[in-house]
Design a protein that fits this description.
By secondary structure, the protein is mainly alpha-helical. The protein has a 4-stranded mixed beta sheet with strand order 3-2-1-4, with helices on both faces. Helix 2 runs antiparallel to helix 3, helix 2 packs antiparallel against helix 7 and helix 5 runs antiparallel to helix 7.
């Protein structure tokens, strides 16, 4: 139905296809703020030491440049050393920014590599589609978010400069290093305040991105039905489902073997486990059966749990072919089952007597 609303949650298949196209819930604002916080953290921890190294390096360079008799080769070597020293100072900032960006993107979308967004898409240059996107709810949200960021940063900058007004007035009369330290500290404080405020806005933006992502992935009931039909029509999927069902049924069946009273065998081709409780059952029940490898596994479990194994070829074949698991044994097999159970009960009494005698002798 063309006008049917998208009220159904996206299926795993739909989510996987969207992920392959690069459609994921991701907030660019959150990534930017995490990178900014990483840089501010490194600046807070590494900044004083980096500033000291820069002062030493700059003093050495200026001393060499203003010295007398400095050759062109010596000056080039000094400038190269200064550039390398500056690079070593800036390496922690680059690493912090890179690690922050990788970590926040991984936490948002996991590991994802796809070239689909790079493919040409005519809708991107379609003026009608562009106008539609321009006045879409997402565009309005982005506009409101930009205005909010501008207001937040402006207000924080105003309050910070207001509190540091005295330092700004006294800056021209201060020593250069003191002025740089004072102004730098105020700017660092401004950066942290903006980062913390924008982090809250980025968290809200991430929540909206997830909401919008889930909303765009929603499906109609008809789309869900069509997808289910396609999946059920896939022979590979049907085969996997049937295999899984057989494995689960076989596992449940094997769990019933230790509870059986006897296992009737062919002796190698068939094995049928039977249980009978005089109080709760009107007739014996087949709790497990199998042939070849399954029969061998039933016999192994029976031996491990002390369940008697009785060879009766005609009875084992008939029960395997005519009685399903969980069904009562038909009346035509009562005589054969009664003989087997009588033998088992007698065997159990003999074992009990032997154990009792062994206990008295000790």
């Amino acid at each position: 139905m063309a006008g049917e609303e998208r009220t159904q949650q996206a299926t795993p298949k739909r989510r996987q296809e969207a992920r392959q196209r690069g459609q994921v819930a991701r907030s660019a604002e959150l990534s930017s703020i995490v990178v900014l916080i990483s840089l501010l953290t490194v600046l807070r921890l590494w900044g004083p030491h980096a500033w000291g190294l820069m002062q030493i390096g700059l003093a050495d360079t200026l001393g060499q440049v203003t010295g007398t008799g400095a050759s062109e080769a010596a000056l080039s070597q000094d400038l190269t050393a200064t550039a390398l020293n500056l690079g070593r100072i800036l390496i922690p900032f680059f690493l912090a920014a890179a690690l922050g960006a990788v970590a926040v993107n991984y936490l948002q979308v996991g590991f994802l590599f796809t070239s689909h967004p790079l493919k040409p898409d005519m809708n991107r240059i379609n003026p009608v589609a562009g106008a539609t996107r321009l006045f879409s709810p997402r565009a309005l949200f982005e506009l409101a978010k930009s205005m909010m960021k501008l207001l937040i940063v402006g207000w924080i900058a105003y309050k910070t400069l207001q509190s540091g007004y005295g330092l700004i007035i006294q800056a021209p009369a201060m020593a250069p290093l003191d002025m740089i330290g004072g102004v730098g500290g105020m700017l660092l404080q401004l950066g942290w305040r903006c980062a913390m405020a924008l982090l809250v806005l980025a968290a809200l933006d991430y929540g909206y991105q997830r909401y919008d992502y889930e909303k765009n992935l929603r499906m109609t009931r008809e789309e869900v039905r069509q997808e289910m039909k396609q999946m059920e029509g896939d022979p590979t999927v049907r085969g996997r489902i049937r295999q899984r069902q057989r494995e689960m049924a076989r596992s449940r069946m094997m769990q019933e073997v230790p509870k059986a009273d006897v296992v009737i065998t062919n002796p190698t081709t068939y094995a049928v486990a039977v249980r009978y409780e005089t109080e709760g059952m009107s007739a014996p029940v087949v709790v497990a059966k199998g042939q070849r490898l399954v029969a061998q596994r039933i016999r192994e479990i029976a031996v491990a749990n002390g369940v008697p194994i009785v060879e009766n070829k005609p009875l084992a074949q008939s029960l395997f072919r005519q009685v399903e698991i969980g069904q009562e044994v038909p009346s035509q097999f009562y005589e054969g089952i009664a003989e087997v159970l009588a033998f088992v009960y007698q065997l159990n009494r003999q074992r009990g007597c032997i154990r009792e005698a062994a206990g008295r002798s000790q």
